[in-house]
From TrEMBL:
Presence of the UniProt keyword Phosphoprotein in the record: yes
SMART domains, alphabetized: REC, Trans_reg_C
PANTHER family from the UniProt entry: REGULATOR OF RPOS, TRANSCRIPTIONAL REGULATORY PROTEIN CUTR
Organism: Paracoccus aestuariivivens
Name used for this protein in its record: Response regulator
4-aspartylphosphate: residues carrying this PTM: D51
Length: 225
């Protein structure tokens, strides 16, 4: 999952980014509405968290842009402006949820998963292939009921491939899903992560294999008997 955090307070942004990354959520940050619009134009985010009191305007101004997009990316307002009429304004303009500050990270995570379940692009909680089951809410991968440990990037690669089983995901799309705007990508970084993920799936007897389409990208499919 890739999330855009629109927040101008550096300490708040870094604390949220660190907390969400521990739950295997890749977080990009935008310190102004202008930067947020540029980030959203890339079309790579699954959900957006928006503070209202931004240096160049009210964060609510981003919501109509999101609603006009064919992707319909879910938007959650996170703001100290938490009075009833302010929350109503946010919901009426098209926000999917409104969470007043301060809040607990666990509640934010629950709300993120709730809006994603309602999103037309994400319609299942568990994705299965072969003996592998990936719980998108718990961010857990199990093979024949046994949990297997994956790194954050391995999990993001697997999730991206599972959303398009049997179809090739181009390398650039995988890199967009796995790496943030601020990450430095080594020339063979994606390949190394895919290789480790392949080994873990094979060792666990997942019954699913990741295949390389040379010069294009990767796809996952069930192992043929």
């Amino acid at each position: 999952m890739r999330l855009l955090l629109v927040e101008d307070e550096p300490e708040m942004a870094e604390a949220l980014r660190a907390a969400l990354r521990r739950h295997n959520i890749n977080v990009d940050t935008a310190e102004t509405l202008e930067l947020a619009r540029e980030a959203l134009a890339n079309g790579v985010h699954d959900v957006v968290l928006i503070d209202r009191q931004m240096p160049d305007g009210d964060g609510l101004s981003l919501v109509p842009m999101l609603r006009a997009s064919p992707r319909q990316v879910p938007a959650i307002i996170i703001s100290a402006l938490g009075k009833t009429h302010q929350r109503i304004d946010g919901l009426n303009i098209g926000a999917d949820d409104y969470l007043p500050k301060p809040f607990e990270v666990d509640e934010l995570l629950a709300r993120i998963h709730a809006v994603l379940r309602r999103s037309p692009e994400i319609v299942v909680d568990t994705m299965c292939i072969g003996a592998l089951a990936y719980d998108t809410s718990a961010r857990e991968v199990r093979v024949s009921g046994q949990k297997i440990d994956l790194t954050r990037r391995e999990l993001l690669i697997l999730e991206t491939l599972l959303r398009r089983p049997g179809r090739t995901v181009v390398k650039a799309a995988l890199e967009d899903a796995v790496y943030g705007f601020d990450d430095e990508i080594q020339s063979n970084s994606l390949e190394a992560n895919v290789s480790r993920l392949r080994r873990k799936l094979a060792d666990a007897g997942a019954g699913a294999e990741i295949h390389n389409v040379r010069g294009v990208g990767y796809f996952i499919r069930e192992v043929e008997e």
